[in-house]
Amino acid sequence: MDQRLTGLEQAVRELREDLAKTQSLAQTMQQGRPRPVRPSRSPAEIARAMAAKISAAQQTILDARTTEEQKLKAWTSLRDHENAWDDALVSQMTHIGLTSSDAATRADVWRQADGRSNHPALASALLQSLQADPEQRVREEAAETLVEYAGRQPSLLPTIQQLLANEQDEDCLLYTSDAAD
To answer: Is residue 1 predicted with pLDDT exceeding 80?
Structure first.
């Protein structure tokens, strides 16, 4: 827990520094003065900061004491980092996506699963959600994300085509027919 807090505190400090620099730059530009020269972080420092942010988000998802909302926020932060998801993270988030009592949370899990980071186990959870979730918006998000996975996993196409025969929601049909074409 301390390591996660330390990582989060570091991330907040960096964000505050970036905000101050941006505000200063905006003020300088409004006054018509040339841009000040500012020291930049080295690639190694940037890599360390990014690794700390990713690690803190991963720990948040795996921590049994964190809420679904906190896990979802961490999940969102990982979506643009290639290979940031492992089996344990995907298991935790697909469980939330399939079982949360809040439809908006279930839908957002699938929405955030459509990013640079991906995992093969997500496809089966997306299919399960598309087939069984009672909420239209959850099925729509699962369908939209499934289109991205079908591009990476062509073996999904026959299953998507079967779903097309049974789906009644027009938005789900639209998304899944895109994948099947």
So the answer is: no
